[in-house]
């Protein structure tokens, strides 16, 4: 579903070019749940921006569903993102003058594919799923950090993206709230088959994804697959023998 080849990103730092990613290549199959970890400054956020088509690499390419981002102009890239991609930014980026429900409706209204009533109904359903059914008419400033994060998640899922990119989805949240977010991501990955790629510094969150890619100084130093956790993830046998 997502193919990264030879991704290199250089920034100009004063007179010197600063290489923050070097020749990064990997594939993410549809339905995968991948975490990207590494020390601060190792290039995680930069990589996520390239994978999501929000930024362009200095060299290398990213393809989503067989479409190479570099072959598209900015309009076509924005359209592709609108159709297939959801984002959860570290800073939530909710619009302060809109209620929770209105914030969640924004992507649907931008896409213009459903009417206002359908958009409102989908937004309410999703807010209920993230446990905010009684907060639909609250403004962001009336919500806690964890609640705002859940509104941002509902907004990311409202147009049923094929792939979700999340930057530190549990950052700045207390343990219990972080736990709810992880469970929600796992659920959406399993139930909707949404491919998820997230950046985290939280080792326990990374361990609960299917695969962890570790960056150091802009290169992949480890790419490991985790054993599925027992109990909740176990697939029940079809019939008792
Ligand atoms: P991480 O997410 O792992 O903390 P980042 O991808 O945010 O790492 O940053 C990697 C490096 O690139 C850092 O040294 C950072 O200062 C630098 N960097 C990030 N964005 C820019 C930019 N727009 N211009 C110049 N340097 C940048």
From TrEMBL:
Record has ATP-binding as a keyword: yes
SMART domains in alphabetical order: AAA
InterPro entries named in the record: AAA+_ATPase (IPR003593), ABC_transporter-like_ATP-bd (IPR003439), ABC_transporter-like_CS (IPR017871), ABC_transpr_LolD-like (IPR015854), MacB-like_ATP-bd (IPR017911), P-loop_NTPase (IPR027417)
Stretches assigned to the ABC transporter domain: 2-241
Keywords (A to Z) from UniProt: ATP-binding, Nucleotide-binding, Transport
CDD domains reported in the protein's UniProt record: ABC_MJ0796_LolCDE_FtsE
GO cellular component: membrane protein complex; plasma membrane
GO molecular function: ATP binding; ATP hydrolysis activity; transmembrane transporter activity
Coiled-coil region list: none
Statement: the UniProt record of this protein carries the keyword ATP-binding: yes
Gene3D superfamilies xref list: P-loop containing nucleotide triphosphate hydrolases
Family assignment from sequence similarity: Belongs to the ABC transporter superfamily. Macrolide exporter (TC 3.A.1.122) family.
Protein name (record): ABC transporter
